[in-house]
Predict the structure.
Amino acid sequence: MLSILTAPGGEHEPDLSSQVGGAPRRLVFGNHGSVEGTGDLERARQAAADGGPVEMVDLGRLLKANGDLDEAEEWYRRAAEAGSTTAMFNLGHLFENDRDDPIGAETWYRRGAEAGNAMAMNGLGVCLNNQGDVGAAEAWYRRAAETGNIDAMKNLGILFDEAGDVSGSESWYRRAAEAGNRESMTYIGYLLKVRGDVDGAEEWFLRAAEVGDTGAANNLGVIHMERGDLDGAQAWYRKAAEAGDTSAMINLGYMLRDGSDLDGAEVWYRQALEAGNARALDNLGYLFAQRGDRTESEVWYRQAADAGSSYAMNALGSSRRDVSDFEGAEAWYRQAAEAGDATAMNNLGNLLRNMADLDGADAWYRRALEAGHPDATDGLAVLGRKIDHSDRQLESISFDTFGWKMTQNGDGFREWRSHELFLVERFMDAPPDLPSWDADEIREGMSDTFNLIGDPDFRIEDAGPSDEYQKYFPAELPEQPTILDVTLFEIPPAKCVAMTFRYRSHSEIRYSLGMLLLFAECVWMLTLVATEDSRFVGEREGAAAHRILEDSSAAEIPTDEFDPYDRRWDGLVPIEHDPLTRLRLLSGRLRDSIKLDSRLSTLTRFAELDD
């Protein structure tokens, strides 16, 4: 039997696991010394007063650790004036990081650098690089690196990487890695991974992980994941995540989510979010969508979108589209597309095409194609067919669309919506799949089909539709479907059937009235669908039962024959509370408005009519 229900298409699932980390992006000033505990300040002051520059520097470090920047600066200055290059470096570091005074920082770094302090040379290089003087920065980095300063070697690696000099970058990173810099070890591993030397990459990642680099541990998880070693991947992700690596937290959550442990995934996503990883917002949005909680999913996606995530914007577009909020869908798709998201460009093209904005669809499909989206070519092909042929079959009939907005305009399919109501037109290029043109036999056939659908082991093939009709079955079958009435009528040269149903879809009560315009070769179908407001569910049924109890003539109706959906009860409650009555009134207008193009007279009449 024909299906007159439709369901929205699905959306792609994102791969939100992070890839192997690349080059470190933060320039390193160097270690200005650390202090364990607060110590005895009075004893340190006495030592500085009685001693030399070393004791002064030690007191400055202690004061800085205690938050007394002014007195720390005072003692650093005394030590610097006494010739301590370490104090000069520490003053530069204090002005750079605590005073936000780049001029003061450069002054002290330069004094220390010119006096031969390698840490100050590196710090001066960082200052100059931040000012855009890359040449001078490189010169000072090299001088520091030549003395064995590992931070300067790493900074040279960063500098050459930013300049696009892969060979120079690798050379300096390798020197820093061999000297023990763990972040440089990780980057050498990254370079080898990109080149396809997975074994070499793994070796460097292991070296870095052994000295505490959590990014390297995360990258080892990625390598094991790509090998299909899920246990190994999860072990490395967990090790890195427990050590505080937020990318590993995301990846561990992704693995748990993929293994259907949504609760475990949520724990790690939330932990990553608390640690400042905004990608967790996208993942939480997707996780709640998997749970079927659209409201909570959109809460997380909106936070991610506010943080600039184009993926979240696109996901919000799809979420809004799936509840027929097409204006909201367009706004979110457009925001993501304008941010450069190729998937959103393609989705926006699909949406605009379905809304009959063919020029807008063409523009976004072409932008998606330029951005490399694989489905844009197919979208343009579908659009081209629509422009070239303009759906001549659909345009062969005309009817009242009640002034509703067109929301979909696909091949052989169009849709108009108005709040909780929508109207669908579909052309099916196949002979009618009806047992006969008899209302009782049609009702019996539909009832048999609904009984099949209710079986937990049901397959579409069990319903017995021809191959041509299986493609018209919706992805989501109705729950608790009931056929309310079947009516036969004619709009020459077509023979017509109108069927009304009540069913559940997306946890809502819906009424659907389908009109089939039958020819021997094909079928046109017009479907009106109304959703019952949850506030008024059961009001019609209750009003009909109450009327029977009050009306002696109606009370003669046997209980087992009581049908609250019979037309006699139409209008018993306010029409805005009664979608079935509203649907029947609209169907009358629709039926009276149908006009067939004269070209349809060449089609063969439905054969069953002559039997």
